[in-house]
Design a protein that fits this description.
With 244 residues, the chain is mainly alpha-helical. Helices cover 52% and strands 7% of the residues. It has 8 helices and 4 strands, in the order H-E-E-H-E-H-H-H-H-H-E-H. Helix 1 crosses helix 7 and helix 1 packs across helix 8. It is elongated. The relative contact order is 0.14.
């Protein structure tokens, strides 16, 4: 079950106002527990619903607690895309394929003569070809090279599609980014400086939060709740003053 928008705003307000350790400070919103799993055995009067609550404090500080925090709300699911690394891998694989493509073209051209043209007109003839009839200089035959090309092209295609899918993911909103950043900087994860450096590479970050088209609603709700909270505090102080 995904938290509602109001719950998400509760998370964000808590982090942005700096009230303690993120999730455990969310008691007014019913978010004391990071995640709740219900397992109930139905249709028996003697069975009872068993609920297991997972608390942020149950996880050691460091990567275990940070992982729990990031998974606790879809607004916090911020991760590094590794765009430059994907680009480097794609360029490397692309050049590898280009080199093999040139070798294949050279093989075809070498066989494009009368007494050897049969090998580019019949795959079976090429597969069963006697090594002595090969005139091109290559460590592999054409069928072997084609198998290598197939493997590399499939790897390249998978990388290309994955890079495209990651690129299509939304960037985190400024509000969500600040929430995760502040939690990490306040020692929520207690990572070494090098291990948490990724959070500062904002241009390479993506969010797994779905449906950013209604993200503006979270901002409005957050401001309204903040105003209501301030008014509630002022009214409470006024009533307490009158009573005393």
């Amino acid at each position: 079950m995904q938290p509602s928008s109001v719950m998400s705003v509760g998370h964000l307000m808590t982090l942005e106002e700096g009230h303690g350790d993120a999730i455990t400070a969310q008691e007014p919103w019913g978010l004391t527990n990071v995640k709740t799993e219900s397992t109930a055995v139905a249709s028996s009067p003697t069975t009872t619903s068993k609920t297991k609550s997972i608390h942020l404090e149950d996880f050691p500080r460091g990567f275990p607690r940070l992982a729990c925090f990031l998974d606790s709300d879809e607004a916090f699911m911020v991760y590094k895309r590794f765009g430059i690394v994907f680009s480097r891998l794609l360029l490397n694989k692309q050049d590898e394929i280009r080199h093999m493509e040139n070798k294949l073209h050279a093989m075809d051209q070498a066989d494009n003569v009368d007494d050897r043209r049969i090998y580019i007109m019949s795959r079976s003839e090429d597969v069963e070809r006697h090594p002595q009839s090969i005139t091109y200089s290559s460590s592999e035959t054409r069928p072997e090279l084609l198998r290598m090309l197939e493997k590399s092209l499939l790897e390249y295609s998978e990388l290309l599609l994955k890079a495209s899918q990651l690129k299509a993911l939304d960037k985190p909103s400024s509000r969500d980014y600040r929430s995760v950043l502040r939690y990490m900087e306040k020692g929520g994860g207690q990572l070494f400086e090098e291990e948490m450096s990724w959070i500062y590479e904002k241009e390479d970050l993506v969010t797994l939060r779905p449906g950013r088209e209604h993200a503006w609603l979270d901002g409005i709700l957050e401001r309204l709740l903040s105003l209501c909270r301030g008014k509630f505090v002022r009214v409470s102080v006024l009533i307490h003053g009158l009573q005393t």
